[in-house]
TrEMBL record:
<feature type="transmembrane region" description="Helical">
    <location>
        <begin position="94"/>
        <end position="111"/>
    </location>
</feature>
<protein>
    <recommendedName>
        <fullName>lysoplasmalogenase</fullName>
        <ecNumber>3.3.2.2</ecNumber>
    </recommendedName>
</protein>
<dbReference type="GO" id="GO:0016787">
    <property type="term" value="F:hydrolase activity"/>
</dbReference>
<keyword id="KW-1133">Transmembrane helix</keyword>
<feature type="transmembrane region" description="Helical">
    <location>
        <begin position="39"/>
        <end position="58"/>
    </location>
</feature>
<feature type="transmembrane region" description="Helical">
    <location>
        <begin position="118"/>
        <end position="138"/>
    </location>
</feature>
<feature type="transmembrane region" description="Helical">
    <location>
        <begin position="70"/>
        <end position="88"/>
    </location>
</feature>
<dbReference type="GO" id="GO:0005789">
    <property type="term" value="C:endoplasmic reticulum membrane"/>
</dbReference>
<keyword id="KW-0472">Membrane</keyword>
<comment type="similarity">
    <text>Belongs to the TMEM86 family.</text>
</comment>
<dbReference type="InterPro" id="IPR012506">
    <property type="entry name" value="TMEM86B-like"/>
</dbReference>
<feature type="transmembrane region" description="Helical">
    <location>
        <begin position="144"/>
        <end position="164"/>
    </location>
</feature>
<dbReference type="GO" id="GO:0047408">
    <property type="term" value="F:alkenylglycerophosphocholine hydrolase activity"/>
</dbReference>
<dbReference type="GO" id="GO:0016020">
    <property type="term" value="C:membrane"/>
</dbReference>
<keyword id="KW-0812">Transmembrane</keyword>
<dbReference type="Pfam" id="PF07947">
    <property type="entry name" value="YhhN"/>
</dbReference>
Length: 242
């Protein structure tokens, strides 16, 4: 059962996410055609991510400055917005640029989630799942994408491992922010896998709706995971010194 203190904390975050939900609704209501990329389309697509910047900033600049994991998630959201903008023009040759931005995002998120606990079983499971995904995509990859996609799958798989390694659903060590991080990572993987299948393998029905709904949900949950930050800067420095 969710502890009462956690319930109050979750409820207190709700009002700060209202702009994000409104911006997400604007994106789906306008549903600007992807065949006509423009700066307006880029702005509408990035607007929910901008709102997640504001969500983290609403906790105070001091919070970000004293919590390295929260700072890295914030910077990851910045790179995500840049990646979103690049993908608006993916048919004009900017798909790889978008992939690069999101690869940086995943590395920042993985760094924010940390390496403790190690979670070797979870890591082994992610290696197997990542390998299966790449093996499925491989016959349809050509040229540089053969290597680029392989590296990207490894990076997002690593991020997923770090997000889920510390997840405990029972006991005193349970934290709702870790559940948010793990769920967000899985949704991000679903979103990116759908992009890969649709681009390299076969048309996925309602792909854009599936990609964007899982993507926005993933980013929101990962941003939420920064609220109960893993370690203040003082503890972070002490842990590095050990």
């Amino acid at each position: 059962m969710l502890p009462l203190s956690h319930v109050f904390q979750v409820k207190s975050e709700g009002p700060k996410l209202v702009p994000f939900f409104k911006a997400t609704c604007v994106y789906f209501v306008l549903w600007l055609p992807s065949s006509s990329p423009s700066w307006v389309s880029a702005l509408i697509k990035c607007l929910p991510i901008f709102c997640l910047w504001l969500f983290l900033l609403a906790h105070g600049l001091g919070f970000l400055l004293t919590h390295p994991s929260a700072t890295r998630i914030f910077v990851g959201l910045v790179f995500s917005a840049i990646g979103d903008a690049f993908l608006i023009w993916q048919d004009q040759g900017y798909f790889v640029h978008g992939m690069l931005m999101f690869a940086v995002t995943h590395m920042l998120y993985a760094s924010a989630f940390g390496m403790r606990p190690l979670g070797l079983r979870t890591g082994l499971l992610m290696v197997i799942l990542s390998g299966l995904c790449y093996a499925f995509l491989y016959p349809n990859l050509t040229g540089a994408f053969t290597y680029i996609v392989g590296v990207y799958v490894a990076i997002i798989g690593f991020m997923g491992w770090r997000a889920m390694a510390g997840l405990q659903l029972v006991g005193a060590a349970w934290r709702w922010t870790e559940l948010a991080a793990g769920t967000g990572a899985l949704l991000f993987i679903v979103s990116d896998l759908t992009i890969a299948l649709d681009k390299f393998c076969f048309p996925v029905p309602y792909s854009r709706a599936l990609i964007m709904s899982t993507y926005y949900a993933a980013q929101m949950l990962i941003a939420l995971s920064a609220v109960e930050s893993r370690e203040p800067v003082e503890d972070y420095r002490l842990s590095k010194a050990k």
